[in-house]
Design a protein that fits this description.
Blueprint (H helix, E strand, L loop, with lengths): L1 E2 L2 E2 L40 E2 L2 E2 L1 H9 L4 H29 L1 H24 L4 E9 L9 E10 L2 E7 L12 H13 L10 H4 L2 E4 L23 H15 L12 E9 L4 E6 L34 H7 L2 E8 L15 E7 L4 E7 L25 E4 L5 E2 L11 E5 L4 E5 L14 H9 L5 H8 L12 H15 L1
Helix pairs in contact: 1-2, 2-3, 4-6
Length: 485
């Protein structure tokens, strides 16, 4: 953005697109072994020049996208957003003058740095460690551990990551993305009201280790899933380390993104569509000290800012029928403060066959819990089951495989029901410390069964009246406390 021929600002609009070209619709290719197989790569190029649109460039892009009509509209919205920023910033500069604006820019950045240094300064000096697990990529990688060594020295923070070598799939992370995962973790341990800009991150020094790892990828490593896997796993590792420094700010882990996208020809108007099924991705959020996790809050990578959309609007725009979208009981990890619930999402593709891509992480390991929260039922909380049912209700596998390949592509036939259950969030502090009244409320609301209330929370509740058996609960809690000691 120029003002009187001087470059003063940059306006940026970054957005997910439903389509980016390449061999797999929807932008995520779980079979890609290198970046060239993940869609159209666009180097810096002008869409507008001297205020006029470059239709040769725009048409080049649209020719490579399956849903060019939608993409043209989305691209226009992004351009309009940047234009709005230009109008407002030039008006602000005209009102206050160039020199005042420049001084304000510097002070905003310097103030953010000062605030972040104060936040780091209240953390105890020392070295802390954490780790996060990336699940097998389905192509023989095995589980991949990311370790974090974090050091606090006064008002400076040093974060080092160590990770296995790059793999032949879409879960490699390039440096700018990995650094964002570190920053995201740090932001959950500091004052949430501080501004986020360059100054915020000046006191945070990130070392990603030698080039060529899954957190320090180099071309041509595939990377389309990188903004969730392994970014969320990097964030888990750094949060685990920071939990040791500031246990009272510790939070349970969030469900990782693992869902699907659909592609087909809409039988209503015979045009191609893609649908990134947000409802299949969002699981429960992690608890914090003093607060339960939020239900189906969305991906950690978006810090809870993602939404699933209205079911009726989805069915209007996309040829699918959603049979149910509801909270999934007992999916949350327990604790003194429990995680948020995941969801059960069931849909049918209508009057056509669709290609479904499965992608992501989070089928094997539950969201991590902290400060003593744990459960022997954790294995049953790692969902993302994906099966199909015939019209008569009998369970049937998609394309002959059950469970569906975690990183794969299949055909969903007209009339088949696809069921996906998303995981819940992690808990905080021992389960037997949860208030009895809170456990009873969860049972009444259907979040937890009476059997699980007894087994996990040491609370006895009548299955018919939901009344608390005070004497039995007292005995169960005494036993739980003795076992914990």
């Amino acid at each position: 953005i120029f003002y009187e021929d001087e470059l003063l600002f940059w306006a940026v609009n970054r957005s997910h697109m439903n389509e980016t070209g390449g061999p797999v619709a929807g932008g995520y290719n779980p079979l890609a072994e290198e970046i060239w197989a993940e869609g159209l790569r666009i180097s810096p190029v002008k869409l507008y020049e001297a205020g006029e649109p470059r239709y040769d460039v725009i048409d080049l892009l649209m020719t490579n996208f399956r849903i060019s009509k939608q993409m043209r509209g989305d691209l226009g919205a992004q351009v309009a957003a940047c234009g709005q920023a230009e109008q407002r910033l030039t008006a602000l500069t005209a009102k206050y003058g160039v020199e005042t604006i420049k001084r304000c820019q510097s002070q905003i950045i310097d103030r953010a740095q000062k605030l972040m240094r104060a936040e780091i300064g209240r953390m105890p000096d020392g070295e802390y460690h954490g780790h996060g697990m990336v699940e097998d990529n389905g192509r023989g990688s095995g589980d991949l551990e990311i370790t974090c060594t974090l050091r606090i020295d006064g008002d400076e923070m040093y974060v080092g990551l160590d990770a296995p070598p790059m793999v032949n799939s879409y879960i490699n992370s390039y440096p700018f993305n990995s650094t964002s995962g570190v920053y995201l973790a740090v932001l959950s341990f500091v004052d949430p009201t501080m501004p986020h800009n360059e100054g915020t991150y000046r006191p945070i020094h990130v070392d990603l280790g030698e080039a060529g790892s899954i957190v320090h990828a180099v071309e041509p490593g595939a990377c389309s899933a990188t903004t969730t896997t392994p970014l969320e796993n990097i964030t888990d590792a750094v949060r685990a380390a920071l939990s040791q420094a500031l246990p009272e700010w510790a939070g349970g882990g969030w469900a990782h993104v693992h869902g699907n996208s659909l592609f087909g020809i809409d039988p209503r108007h015979h045009e191609p569509y893609t649908y990134f099924a947000h409802m299949s991705h969002w699981g429960g959020g992690g608890a914090f000290w003093g607060q339960d996790g939020e239900h189906v809050v969305g991906t950690l990578a978006a810090a809870g800012g993602a939404m699933t959309g209205n079911i009726e609007v989805v069915e209007y725009q996309v040829p699918i029928h959603i049979h149910r979208y509801e909270l999934d009981p007992e999916s949350a990890c327990p604790g003194r403060w429990r995680g948020g619930l995941g969801a059960a999402y069931e849909f049918t593709v209508v009057d056509h066959d669709a290609t479904m891509t499965q992608l992501g992480d989070g089928m094997k390991y539950p969201a991590p819990s902290v400060l003593g929260a744990e459960s022997r039922f954790n294995g049953s909380r790692v969902y993302q089951n994906c099966v199909a049912r015939n019209a008569d209700g009998a369970l049937a596998a998609l394309d002959g495989s059950e469970p569906l390949d975690q990183h794969g592509i299949c055909t969903v036939h007209a009339g088949e029901k696809v069921l996906i259950q998303t995981p819940g969030g992690g808990g905080v502090a021992p389960t037997h410390e949860r208030e009895v009244a809170a456990v009873a409320a969860d049972v009444r609301n259907g979040f937890v069964s009476p059997d699980r209330a007894r087994a996990e929370y040491a609370v006895a509740i009548d299955v018919n009246t939901f009344a608390i058996d005070e004497d039995e609960t007292s005995a169960l809690r005494s036993s739980a406390m003795e076992a914990a000691v």
